[in-house]
Amino acid sequence: VVPIASQEMEYRVELFNKMVSSCYEKCMDKKFKDGDLNVGEAACVDRCTGKYWQTVGIVGSMLGAADAQAQQQQMR
Amino acid sequence: MPTQDDMIMQDFMNNCAVKTVLATVMGGFLGAAMGVFFGAFDPMTPTEGEKQTIVQQLKKAGRSTLSKSYSYAKGFAAFGALYSGSECVFEQTRAKHDIYNSAYAGCFTGGVMARSSGPQGMAMGCATMGALSVCMDKFMELH
């Protein structure tokens, strides 16, 4: 059980890092004239994470369906 | 990492309604100050040749200054509310932070403030205010 949990933890950490990195690349203005997020960037990060999470959900459910199908075919 | 208090404050300040209210209040104060400043330059001629006492003249000047500063305050507050609100809405919609937000907000504000002088006046107001806000932002180097 522990190896599965640790692998799950690694996947989650990887997901978090990828999400933060991709939304940072997409949304942040690299001129750094200010240290705080302004309105546009805050809205962008909000929407970026929302879309990313929905993508994770859709792809995850598709993978789960493919897995379930493969398992069903194996059991026959 | 920002603390929880920092993030709450940032969320509060990045809100469009809060920004509009703040800009309205500041515009009102600025308008009142300018009204008082310019009211001091009004010529204080005595009416109908009557000789009024100093106190009466001061009271008349005070009333005219108050009404002037009230009208200035209204104008500046409306201007501030329009500019700040429209800039915030444009920036949230575009999800980008660049100079075009100021240009669009200036155009919108100029157009609305000049709405009583027909489409040509609105176009002129839009162009003028847009150029002015772009120049001001470039000068303040916020973008």
Automatic annotation (TrEMBL), chain A:
Localization (cell): Mitochondrion inner membrane
Keyword field contains Disulfide bond: yes
Record InterPro entries: Tim10-like (IPR004217), Tim10-like_dom_sf (IPR035427)
GO molecular function: metal ion binding
Gene3D superfamilies on file: Mitochondrial import inner membrane translocase subunit tim13 like domains
Subunit record text: Heterohexamer.
Name of the molecule in the record: Mitochondrial import inner membrane translocase subunit
Organism from which the protein derives: Micromonas pusilla (strain CCMP1545)
Lineage: Eukaryota, Viridiplantae, Chlorophyta, Mamiellophyceae, Mamiellales
UniProtKB/TrEMBL annotation, chain B:
Bilayer-crossing regions: 20-41
Recorded GO CC terms: TIM22 mitochondrial import inner membrane insertion complex
Compartments, record wording: Mitochondrion inner membrane
UniProt KW keywords: Membrane, Mitochondrion, Mitochondrion inner membrane, Transmembrane, Transmembrane helix
Mitochondrion found in the keyword field: yes
UniProt xrefs under InterPro entries: TIM22
Membrane topology: Multi-pass membrane protein
Molecular function in Gene Ontology: mitochondrion targeting sequence binding; protein transmembrane transporter activity
Domain of life: Eukaryota
Family the entry assigns: Belongs to the Tim17/Tim22/Tim23 family.
PANTHER family: MITOCHONDRIAL IMPORT INNER MEMBRANE TRANSLOCASE SUBUNIT TIM22
Name this polypeptide is given: Mitochondrial protein translocase family
Organism lineage string: Eukaryota, Viridiplantae, Chlorophyta, Mamiellophyceae, Mamiellales
